[in-house]
Amino acid sequence: MVSPCQVYRSTRSSAKETKSFEEVVIQGLASDGGLFIPPTIPQVSQETLFGKWSKLSFQDLAFEIMRLYVAQDEIPDADLKGLIQRSYSTFRANDITPLAKNTTGDKENLHVLELFHGPTYAFKDVALQFLGNLFEYFLQKTNKDLPQEQRKKITVVGATSGDTGSAAIYGLRGKKDISVFILYPTGRISPIQEEQMTTVPDKNVQTLSVKGTFDNCQDIVKAIFGDSDFNSRHNVGAVNSINWARILAQITYYFYSYFQATGGKADKVKFVVPSGNFGDILAGYFTKKMGLPVEKLVIATNENDILDRFLKSGTYERSDKVAATLSPAMDILISSNFERLLWYLAYENLANHDALKAGEICNNWFQQLKIEGKFTVDQAIIDGALKDFSSERVSNTETTATIKKMYKDSQNPKKYILDPHTAVGVCATERLIKADNDPSMHYISLSTAHPAKFADAVNDALSSYEDYSFVRDVLPEELKKLSALEKKIKLVEKADIELVKTVIEEELAKMGL
Ligand SMILES: *Cc1c(COP(=O)(O)O)cnc(C)c1O
Fold it and tell me: How many independent structural domains does the chain possess?
């Protein structure tokens, strides 16, 4: 039996057609340009939440959550459990996503949720370790017993300005029938990020260092996705956060950290999330809608504040220039996953809860965005969003000041060092703690990266402290070793789609794929 929460549709579709979980994961983006969503969100009772789920391990909780969204006939229980076990066996922390222990002792209601204990030290591992295993699982099912030349293969192509590329490579390395090509702008990513991506020896992984900007790389990737001839030959797959499986995998840590922070009780909790493409915080929205009593989801943005502006004005407007900030993973012009929230807001605002009509409304908004560069929604839609969300904008100066303050205030002997993305969230959280003045409220501030990944911003903030040393206090042993490893880089001399396609085909031939 398939439940209504296990079928999916596009945010822009007004047709009856639905898709299975497998179709949604493999396809990534809907053919009408929309994103896939489960129109019905599963409901979990308070007895189940606080009688059962509050006592589960991270992996067991992940299983209970995913089971609700994925039909048994697509992935039977034992297989789903195996996928989850394998995906989180690569994490360094026993409880996968722990709450930090040595932050400021005087603020016991501020919890920093460390999401960076996966292979690449960024929160994207939580989702991409799982997505890599899912791709492999579905391909193995399809390819069972087929001879080599008939096997279905996936060629993953992505562009990165840093974190996504390495997390995707570590999620897909060594996976059968899958190859991965990650484009990045030559000389424009941090040395650690380049080392992480280029020292993976697996044959199915190839990084392409492209002479150009990040936007050039992204344009090439988009053009490759739109090239139906290349696509039909190579089955191009997407790993960016439009993939529904990434959102699904992230729901677990919202439930898990809530229970950790409250000791399993139904207390008041606000989540504060450093946001860019809105994928992380959207998982928090599903958590709240499933029945966990979350007080608010707080969007923390840097100076690229399209979301903050939308919640204040009701106008969603693409800015024409992206500001380069200390938190580059959040430097975006448009938050692609925001479309999913807008669909639910449109749906809930309709008296008859008509999914087909919600798709039509959403499609109109995004057509308008494409033509006019902006759209404005009714006040009722904004009011709907404000029931669950609020937003805070944090400047570069405040980001640096927050890294300093946490370092100074945190307990000896170990000082706590924030990465700049996490600092955006912690700055927003401290503002809220002051404004709310409610000692019974818990604040869970999501930490999205290890500080070693963003050395420049961290050193700028802390190098004036005499007893501070990046190598001793920040850089993990495992990352120190990377610089000694052999690098595998393919230079692409010109940001040109035909050239990149040729290089990919040559490399695929070498890989035997
Ligand atoms: C990707 C990323 C973010 C933003 O997450 P979204 O899901 O795009 O909102 C924040 N911080 C870091 C370190 C990231 O890598």
Answer: 1
